[in-house]
Amino acid sequence: MSSTEALTRLSKELGGAQPPPSIGRLEDGQLTLLADAVRRERERRASGLGDAAEEALKLVPALARGPVRRILFK
Predict the structure, then answer these.
(1) H/E stretch holding 66
(2) How confident is the model at residue 25 (pLDDT cuts 50, 70, 90)?
């Protein structure tokens, strides 16, 4: 993977934000490793948010959980 491709991938993992110019000094392998680490962290956080939302739903009365879940997670 070229540096340009690796920087594009990293930018995509950052939600379209441009990485700082100093990141461009990293080698291709390092850029790929960084992009993978950012992706894994985003997935971990998303999973944690989903788990927290499910825990919060336990505070909603049982009869209302289904409708509340459908409203929140459309």
Answers:
(1) helix 62-72
(2) confident
pTM: 0.64
Question: Residue 28 in contact with residue 2, Cβ under 8 Å?
Answer: yes
39 CB neighbour count, 10 Å cutoff: 15
**DSSP symbols for 23-61:** GGGS-HHHHHHHHHHHHHHHHHHHHHHHHHHHHHHTTS-
Nearest alpha carbon to residue 37 among 23, 21, 52, 51: 23
- Contact (CB, 8 A) for 34 and 10: yes
| Residue 68 Cα distances to 20, 37, 57, angstroms | 41, 34, 8
Instruction: Yes or no: say if 11 and 35 are a contact pair by the CB < 8 Å rule.
Output: no
